[in-house]
Amino acid sequence: MLLDEDERRIDELVATIVRKRSPVMAHNERGLIADSFVVDMLEHIHKATRRAAERFCQQRNAQSSINLLPPELLVLIASFLPYGSLDAAALVCRHWNRALSSDSSLWDAVAISFLRQGGPWQSALQKALDRSQSRMRKLTLHYPSEVCSALEPECVRLPTMVTSVMHSLVDLHLDLSGCFCSGWNVILSTPAPNLHSLALTGPNNPAPFRLQDNLFDGTAPRLRVVWLTYLFLPSDPGAALNGVSEVAYFDVPVISMEEMQHICCVCPKLIYLTVTAQTYDVTLPPQEFTPPKLRSLCLANIIPGGIFEQLVRANSRCCELRVLRPTSLSLAALVFTRIRRIHEIHIYREFSSRSWASVMVTGDDNYSICAEDCTLQDVIDLLVSGNEYLSSIPSVIVSDTLLIMLEAAGVMAALTDMKSLTVLFDNEAHVPCPHLFTGFEGGRFSCGSLETVRLASYAQYTRGFKRSHDEISLSAECVGRWLPASTSRLLLCGARLNTDGDPRDWINCEIATEWDCEGRQGGGIWLETAWRDSFPHRQALCV
Q: pLDDT of 126-164, one tens digit each?
């Protein structure tokens, strides 16, 4: 913004220039200055002032720290940005634009949300294609119902543009909840030789759409994952699903026995199956039906009868059975009675929500059952009433917050045969939740059978051992006062003991870190469950 004094100086300067440079020929026969002279003079003044402003900006920007960054460093920093932020960074200045546009690998993961009517959808997608030099690896598009009517002409143009990169795509995520029109079928009929995962969301209709036959023209040899929301697999998919190992049906109104048979039939290598439906058909399948051998079976609310019960019973070895939000009445039977002998119980909750928790038990033959997203009160009631089952469990994994709650409820006292206890800590404080070693522990933890205690960072234990995760800092004095006297070994996973002296002055047992021992064994679902294929709005470019 210009000050009043600056505007007056500009007025005086322009007036002086006009008086000095206005020739007699610029006046007409009546002595008035011609319009053409004024326009020409204004153009010259505008060009001169623009050159001066650009020269000033170039000189100032050349001294700016952001422009002094070498292109290699800019590209490295930009590689950590989501697509929406990356697009904004390329608009900061010409230096950034040149540096970021020079590396096509930065632009191989595109996420665009068409949120506004009349938005520049076609140009945004074309720019993404140009930046990736048609070697795009991941494409995520969001097409909501709010812009369905406005986008109808684009139902031909946009899918055709996407087909130009189907040869290089590894991950394709289309949220077509606004309108799953026939124009988009051109994408699903184009060969996709490198496609690994396909996620599609259709409109929420009473009768879900079924994908067209001969998916990807029968050419998708690397396709392994198919996630469908409000959609069904094709009746005759061709060879595209021959290598698929994971199928998910999300939020379908009704899932029939015939549809379950169809999934198992068209995906011969199926090992991960997720079905969340409002209603399950419990009709028994034909006798010739052979349930596939699964590593993971995920259902919602209950374990239905019929073909679903057959799938559960046929996969009670080396498998994970997950049930989302089971009913209160079915919770105890699900967790405690479907496994002959429980070796480990894992009680956890998402740190973003204080009112929901999950329980996972692992038993013989590496069989795990997990009740996910239960109310916290249901989980506490389940454990309080399950003393007869808890008394023989040798291993427990629990967050520090839940440990305090369960100890107050008398649950931990029921674990009379517990040999191993893993306590998970988070770096962030979640007030008003109580946390261990902050004054809530109430003295020494009482358990005469406990031999091994692991104090672990939540991030380290649930996402694998990576030194890049922040360590949890714990007071050696507080830990020593809390540890049961029977403890013979203390393991630290992403945690360190703080003390002015030797930690062994406070802790009278062996101290080891996970880097020095075997670490956490096995795979499993371990807290990082994605029950829904949601669109990453925060990472996307909105147009």
A: 888 888 887 889 998 887 665 555 556 566 677 888 888
Alpha helices in 63-171 (DSSP H): 65-68, 71-78, 83-89, 94-101, 121-131, 148-151, 154-163
List, in sequence order, every residue forming a beta bridge with 411; answer none if it has no partner.
Answer: none
- List Cα–Cα distances, 103 to 64, 96, 98, 129, 167, in angstroms: 23, 12, 9, 13, 20
306 domain-assigned: no
Residue 373 lies in a domain: no
DSSP string for 372-387: EEEEHHHHHHHHHT-H
Whether 55 is covered by a domain: the verdict is yes
- How many angstroms separate the CA atoms of 182 and 64, rounded? 52
Structural tokens at position 542: 């909105």
Mean pLDDT of 184-202: 90
- The span from the CA of 196 to the CA of 226, in Å, is 9
**Which residues are CB-neighbours of 310 under 8 A, at least 6 positions away?**
284, 285, 289, 291
Cβ(213)–Cβ(237) under 8 Å? yes
* Structural tokens at position 281: 């058909």
Q: Is residue 32 part of a domain?
A: yes
Phi-psi region of 439 (alpha: psi -120 to 50; beta: other; left: phi over 0): left
Contact of 95 with 67, CB cutoff 8 Å = yes
Domain that holds residue 37: 4-63
Work out the number of other CB atoms within 10 angstroms of the CB of residue 111: 24
Tens digit of each residue's pLDDT (9 = 90 or more) over 361-391: 998 888 899 988 888 888 888 898 888 889 8
pTM as predicted: 0.77
Confirm if 346 and 360 have CB atoms less than 8 A apart. yes
Number of domains in the chain: 1
How many Cβ atoms are within 10 Å of 141's Cβ, its own excluded?
Answer: 23
